[in-house]
Amino acid sequence: MNSFDNDDDVFTGKDHTPLREDAFQMSPNEKVAKIESLFGEIMQTLGLDMTDDSLKDSPKRVAKMYVNEIFGGLLPENKPSISTFKNSYKYRQMLVEKDITVYSFCEHHFLPIIGKAHVAYISNGEVIGLSKINRLVDYYAKRPQVQERLTMQIVSALKEALGTQDVACIIDAKHLCVNCRGIKDTASSTITAELSGIFRTNPITRQEFLHYVGIHSKLD
C-alpha cells in the first residue's frame, strides 16, 4: 500500500486535491527545511536584506507555518478521527452547525480565503459530536483550495462518516485575490453550496436549511 492510500479523499473522486503520488515521501521536517531554503531565495530575489534581525528568521517561520499550520490539511495524519454515536433519542430533524470559521488559501495566488461555513445533516441512525464538524471544515480548509472543492470535500467526508446522503454545506467567503489585487473589490463575497440527498431533492427541506443559516434571500 502506498502512503497516500490512507487518505483517498485527497486523490480520488471529483473533489480530490491535486497532489502527486510522491507527495508524502518527504517527512514534515524535511519539507520545512526545503521550503525554508526556497523561501529564503524568494526573499533574496526581492532584494530584502536577509541579515536584518527582523527578516533573518522569516524563511523558517514561513516554512513551519506552511507545513504545520495553514497547509496542515495536506498531511493525512492530521485528518480528525470521526466517532459517531447511535441516535438513541430518535432526533429526526436536521442538525445545523452554522457560522463555522473558514480560513483557507486560494491555490491560484496563495492568498487567504476567509469566511463562514454552514453545515447540516439529517441522521440516518448515527450522530456526530458537534466539534468534529468544525474540525472537518478546518482540516479541508488547510490546503491550497478552490472554494467549490472545499464545499464538496466537507459534504463527502460527512456523508462517509454518517452513512447518509442527507448532508448540506454552504460557504460564504471573501477571497483576498479579489479583494487586495486585480479588481480590488473589497465588498464582494463568494457563495458555494453542495446539497446532497433530501437537501437536493426536497424544496421544503432545502428552504428550511437556507432559512436557518440566514442566507435564503441570496440563493432563492
Radius of gyration: 20 Å
In percent terms, what proportion of residues is strand?
Answer: 15-25%
Question: Quick one: how many beta strands?
Answer: 7
The geometry reads as: elongated
| Count of alpha and pi helical runs | 9
Detail the topology: elements first, then pairings.
Elements: H1 8-11, H2 28-45, H3 58-70, E1 84-86, E2 94-106, E3 112-122, E4 126-128, H4 130-141, E5 144-145, H5 147-162, E6 167-175, H6 176-179, E7 190-195, H7 198-201, H8 203-213, H9 216-219
Parallel strand pairs: 2-5
Antiparallel strand pairs: 1-4, 2-3, 3-6, 6-7
Protein name: GTP cyclohydrolase 1
Catalytic activity: GTP + H2O = 7,8-dihydroneopterin 3'-triphosphate + formate + H(+)
Domain GTP cyclohydrolase I: 36-212
Structural account:
The radius of gyration is 20 Å and the shape is elongated. It has 9 helices and 7 strands, in the order H-H-H-E-E-E-E-H-E-H-E-H-E-H-H-H. Strand 2 and strand 3 form a beta hairpin. The strands form 2 sheets. It has a 5-stranded mixed beta sheet. The protein is α+β, with helices and mostly antiparallel strands.
Short characterization:
With about 220 residues, this protein is of the alpha+beta class. The chain has helices spanning about 10, 30-45, 60-70, 130-140, 145-160, 175-180, 200, 205-215, 215-220, and strands spanning about 85, 95-105, 110-120, 125-130, 145, 165-175, 190-195. The chain has nine helices and seven strands.
